[in-house]
Amino acid sequence: MTPRDPVKTQRNREIAELTEQINALKEKVLRITGYRNEQSLNATYGGKHSQYIDIKHEIIDSPEQFIALYLRGFLDYLHDLGSAARLGNPYFDAHAHIKDSEVVKKWFRLFLTRTYLRQFDALARKRPEVQEAEIWIGQKNASYGILVSPRFRRGAWENDKSEIRHFKSNYWTIGHILETGFVIPDEDDRIEFSSVEHYLKFFRQTLVRNSGSQHEMEVARRYCSFVLASAKPLDVPLLIPELRYGGKSVRHDYRLDFTIIDPFTLKKVGFELSPWSTHGRLEGTQKKTQKQVNEEAQANFEREMRKLKAYFRKQGIPIIVYTDTDLEDYDAIFQEMAAYLSPTRKAKQLEFHAMNDFLAFKPGR
What we know:
The protein is an alpha+beta fold. 49% of the residues lie in helices and 13% in strands.
C-alpha cells in the first residue's frame, strides 16, 4: 500500500478547518448579501476564478497569491465595465458586499483560501502545452513514448487535451511513468510498471543497456540508487535516456544521452557523455598527413557541435557535455546531475497591496 503523503494529509486537515469556519459565517453572509442559498453565493465568487485568473499559464504557489491574482482580475473586470458598474450589476454588487462588510470580507478570504487548497495540484504547477506533453525516446527500432494523458485513436497515440491539466502526478517524474507507462508507437499497447523498482530495472537493463555505453550504465546505476534512497521517490524527475530530436519519426539526426525536465517549470537540461573514442577518434591516420588528420578531427568536432547547437536552437535545451577527463569521475558527474533531480518550488513575490487597490475601486462615470 502506498504510504499517505503527509503534505496532502495536512492540506486536507486545513480544508476541513476552513469549511467549519465558512459554515459558521454562512447564514450571516447570506442575510447580508441577499443571495438565495449557498449555491448562489459560491457561484458568484468561487465560480469566477478561472475568469479572473489565467489559470492555464499562472503557477500559483500560495493562497495569498491566488487571492491577489483573483482580486487583480476582478478589479480589471470592474474597470472594463465602465458606466455599467453600478448598483444592480452582479459584479458591482459582489464587490460592494466585500467592501461594505467585514463579515463578507472574512468569509471571502476563507472561501478563496479553501478553493486554492482544493485545487492546489492543478494550480501550483505549470501545465505543458499540448505539443510539449509528448516525448519520444530510444533508438530507431526500440522507441517509446511518454505522454501525459495518453489515449489511442485512429491508429496513433495522442494526449487527451482535457485531462492534461488534471494529471495527478508531477509531470515527467517517477510517479508520472508509473501512472502512464510507455506507449508503443502506432500500436495500442503500453509497457506499464507496478512499482518504482520495476521501472528502475527496465530503465537500467533495457533503456540504457541498449545504448552499449558503459558511461551511461554507470550514470544509470547511480540514478537508481538516488531514487531508491529518496524520501519521495515518486517525485524524483525522470532521467530520460535517448530523447529523440524529431519525436517518433524514423529518420533521426540526433538523440541526447540523458535529459531531465523540471516538473515545476518544465524546463529541460540535456547531458552528453562524449568520450574521444566516440566522437573524435580517427581511423587510418598512418597514411594521412598531419594536416589531413587535423582537418578531419576538426570536421568531426564541428559536426558534433552543429548537432548540439541545432538541438539547443530548435528545442531550447541547454546541454552539459562531459568529455574524457570528466568521465574519469562518475560520482562527480552524477553529483552535478543530482542538482537537477532535486527541484524545489519557488514562491513568487506576493501582491500584498491587491486588497487595498480592490477596495479603493470607484465606478467611472
